[in-house]
Amino acid sequence: MIDVQNQPDTRNLPINRVGVKDLRYPITVTDRANDVQQTVASINMYVSLPRHFRGTHMSRFIEILNEKHQTLHIDGIADLLKTMKQRLEAHEAHMDVSFPYFIEKTAPISGAKSLMEYKCSYSGILSDTLDFILRVDVPVTSLCPCSKELSDRGAHNQRSIVSIAIRSSDFVWIEELVEIAEAAASSPVYSLLKRSDEKAVTEAAYDNPRFVEDLVREVAAKLNADSRITWYKVESENFESIHNHSAYAAIEKV
What is the arithmetic mean of pLDDT over 28-35? Predict the structure, then answer.
């Protein structure tokens, strides 16, 4: 049969990324408490395409994924990207994996247990070397220091999302990044709280006010103190409860 993808292309234009996007696939993630966790990921797989090829072989991405599904985790991404490069005759291979990750949380007073979802992702780019980034989005509570100072009765607070993306020289648990983000906030967020827990959580937040700037600075300070972290980007978006906009701050280590 004629291989149309391998036919020459005369436009002399290489393509940076070509492949498959938003492929839903079951994966296994390393879990600090339970060794492993089964979840479902959304996966993007791309390669660079030389200017002399008309197209890439889309089916080979799925073939590689099916072959490597047992090792589709952080430790195995380098091998998978290497296979993509070789099988698709590319100089560079890319892979993005986004997935929900669940951690069991214990309410502070009642001890009620529930599962909390965190949106996580990792991405790898392999050319001559591997570039790997892990990202975790952590929902937290932030209470406004200005509102606390000005108001005679309470202070406004909001749910915030603290996003931490890192490059590291050694393995870092997802749970470690979650704990850093929650410690920087006015209070963690829980899936299940009894009345006694609600009292404890709201009072803890009131005693620990945080600007959006405080959130990213606290997280960045902890990451700076960790010798494993070689690069990071910390972002926080506060979904304001008394404004029709969000507050935002970011710090990136260069």
Answer: 91
d(Cα 109, Cα 4) in Å, to the nearest integer?
65
What is the pLDDT, as a whole number, of residue 225?
98
Structure token pair of residue 164: 């931490």
Position 12: which residue type?
A: N
User: CB neighbours of 83 closer than 8 A, spacing ≥ 6?
Assistant: 64, 67, 68
Tokens standing for residue 213: 């700037």
What average pLDDT does the chain have? 92
- 83 touches 128 (CB < 8 A): no
Q: Give me the mean pLDDT over the 148-156 stretch.
A: 90
Domain 1-106 classification at class level = alpha beta
- The β-bridge partners of 102 are 117
pLDDT at res. 38? 92
Domain ranges (residues) in the chain: 1-106, 135-254
The set of residues, in sequence order, having a beta carbon less than 8 Å from that of 36 and lying 6+ positions away, is 28, 29, 30
Tell me yes or no: is domain 135-254 CATH 3.10.270.10: yes
d(CA 152, CA 176): 37
**Contact status, residue 181 vs residue 136, Cβ threshold 8 Å:** yes
pTM of structure: 0.91
Query: Quick one: which of 81, 126, 95 has its CA closest to 21?
Result: 95
Reduced to 3 states, what is the DSSP secondary structure of residue 102?
Answer: strand
